[in-house]
Structures are given as structure tokens and as C-alpha cells.
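Peptidase_M13_N domain-containing protein structure dump, as promised
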Amino acid sequence: MKVIWLSVIFWATVSTADFEQNSTLNPCDDFYDYVCQQTSRTITNLTFTGLYEELEVQQPNETFFNNGTYTSLENLVNLSNLTQWCVEMEVLSLGYYNYIADGLNSSEKLKEVMKRLDGLNSTNVNIFYNALHANVEILNQMNIPVVEENQFLHNISETLKIRIRAELESSSISDKAKTHIKKSIETSKQFYAFYDHNDVKVFETAKLTYETEYYRLKSLLSPEDIQRKVSESILRIGATTASMEYLMSMIPGFDVNFLFHAIIASPENDAFQYNGGNHLLTVITRNDLTQQEKTMADTYFITTHEIMHLIYPVANSYINESVWSGALECTLRDVKMLGETDAVKPVDGWYNADIGYEDLINVMAMRVLMKMAAEKSVNEQQLKEALETVIGGLCKHTGRKNELIPDHHPLEISRNAAVRQYPLFNSLYGCKAGDRMFAKPNEYCKPLGDPINVEDFLIKNETRKDAGGFFKDVLNTAERFNFTYGL
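C-alpha cells r here:
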């Protein structure tokens, strides 16, 4: 599978009042509820085109006339482009790649592509054009510097890469696995939607390029071919090809298929890890950008999560099966227990062992961040604030609790599992045996096969200057970079 979609919703939270105790909520029973029921949500107010609207292609100022010579629909767009974008558009619904069989001659391949285009969901065909609209509209509402690469955000990703490589180096996995995974992490490319390559003029030109090519190609078709059901898909693919060629010239260094999905995912509020070019996408605009500590926490957690995917499941084959399968089984035990004992029962069919690696890397991400927090904390209260800020940056306040998420266990359950697996959680919150969130030391999962050393998570900053805690220190760093979320 080439693309791994990680549909992570970014939810807003509120002020430091979140850390005040509420006697009706018990962190040892449900930590997610303990944090999130004490917050209110204000998503950043951005208005943009919905990606699933039936949006007609706008007519450009340029007009095309046919001289009486028509091009057949089958020859209108290069076969390789038809094949490429047919498969990429299908994956939006399928969630996996359904490649056209090798060994077909051109005639056979065209027949197969035309058949699949004829059955292609119109939403998938139209979504890229809608996404171009949305990207333009969002960027026009954001007050941020135009840059190719946001230095502060990439400082975050580079810092996290260093930390994760250090975790690997100190582990007992094989040298071969260490070398492979560390290289994969080191060479991975991060794309922060709307903060990298964010010149709105580029997206306006990409949109105009799409529109111009759409109507140019349409002018080449006979009235009979225009009436064929498959014609709209082919016209849209031709327009997508032209638009993507322009975007690739303006946003170099990324795999074309990754960039296509990134443009769609950005307004969709999806983050994902893309194996094909070792690329990672993080989206941070769908949080309350006025609540900067929590937005920072969200950015840190999601970026860490995506980098961790370069370990699981991408590098499974390099790690001893007993190690990764044991870590997965351990994590799934927590997930299943927390789901079955939640006061709000998940819907039937919520549990799926095949997607447990999403929960495993949440455990890994939480542990890395809390080790970093320990280095910037002078007391346990600051550690607690860091943990609550991370969860607070992931709260959702709409819909039913424990709703199904495609290819993930319910967000609330997975986050609680990550917290339960944080080795200092019991001591910080006074949890005892019998409490739902309490984990015995022998229940701590071992993602890389090594025993968990609680000492690694203890405060390391007792004699240093008090920076106010981890995320306040992050904000100070952001200020030195002159970083702004905009809006």
C-alpha cells in the first residue's frame, strides 16, 4: 500500500483554566473526559469551498473554438496520465491502490482504464478542483508570511527526528533495522499545509490552469463525445494533469502523487504519511489558533505521530516479528479494555486489530513528547500541564463520543490508551490498582522490545531556569523565529 491516510481531526481548546480541578471528573477513570469536558471549542473561523460540492469548472477569460476537426475521447489525454490519475482518484475512496495489471498492451490498458473511469465516483473526479478553490480561499484569509519553508515548523520536525532517531539508537533492535529506519526518518520530507509553499498566487494560477485546460480539451471533442458519461472524468483528468505540472514546477522536491493528495487533504484537515516519496503532511489550521499552547501541542503530537509511521508499520519487516507483534498485542489490549469499559459505548464493529499500529504509535509519540516535557519542567505540575495540553489539543466537542473514524479506533479511546501507557501517569494523578486508567509496570508496552525505564521520564530540569514548562518554552522559541499562526 503506497499511501497511508491518517485522518486526524484538529480540535480547538481553551485557556489555562483547563488545568483547574473539577471534582466531578476523575483523571484515573477517563483522562480524555477529565481534560476535554473542562474545555470549550472554538475552531478557527475559515470559510472555504466544500470538497464534496458539485462545483462546475469556471469559464476562463480565454475562449476556445473548434475548427471542425475533432479529437476522439479515447485520444484526448495521454494514456499514462489517464491511468495515473484514475488510480489516484480511486484511492480516495478505496483507501488502497488498485493498480491496473501489468502486461496489458495499449489497447487493453485503454479499455480497462475507460471501464474504470466510467464507474469512477464523480466526487473523486471533482475533488481536486474543489481543493484548489479551498486552498485559495484559506490562504486569502490567513495573515502569514509567504515562504517556501516555514523555519520554525521545520525546526520542530527536525528536533523530533533527532529525538526519535535517538530512541532508536538506544533500543535493542538490530543494527540493520536502526540504520534503515534512521535513514528513512532523516531523509523524510515534511510539508506543513498553508505554512510551506503558501503563495496564494501559485494556487490561483494552478486553478486557472485547470480551468483553461478543461475548456481547451472540451473544445476538441465532438458533441457526441461530450455527451458520453466518461467524458467529464477524462476532461477533469486532463485538467488535473496540466494543473499538477504547473504546481510541480512551483513546489519542487515532492512526489507528484503526494502533492496531489496534500492539496486535497489540507482543507480536509487530514494529516498523512506517504510511503512513495517518504513524505509527511501536517495540517494545523483547524484548531483555535488563538490558543497557541494547545495548537503547538497538537502540531508536535501529530508531527511525531507521522514520523513514527516510518517505524510502524512501514519498517515492520526490519524489526523482529516478536517485538512488533508483542507491542501491537499489548497496545490492543489497552484499546479493547478502554473501549469496552467506556461510559459511552462505541458502536458495534469499532474494534479492528488490523489498525492497531495507529494506537501503538500514539503510545510512542506520547512517550517521546513527555520525555521532552521532563527536560523543560521544574516540577510535577508542569509535567501535568504538558500532558493535559497535549490531550487538550486533541479534544473534539462535536458529535457523539467514540465515533468511528476511517482506519482508526475512536480518537478518545486511542488517546486514553496513550496516556495510560505514560509511565508517570499513575504517580502524577494518584491512580491506584482498580482504577480504569491505572497500568501496572508489567503492563507497559515495549514498542521496540526494551523494558520501560521510569527514570527516563523523570524531571531533568530541577536546577535550571524555570521556562514555565514545555509548551511555554516552545512559544518562546516560536517568538525567536518570529513565527505567527496568522489570523
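The first strand starts at residue 3 and ends at 6.
lmk if u need the other ones
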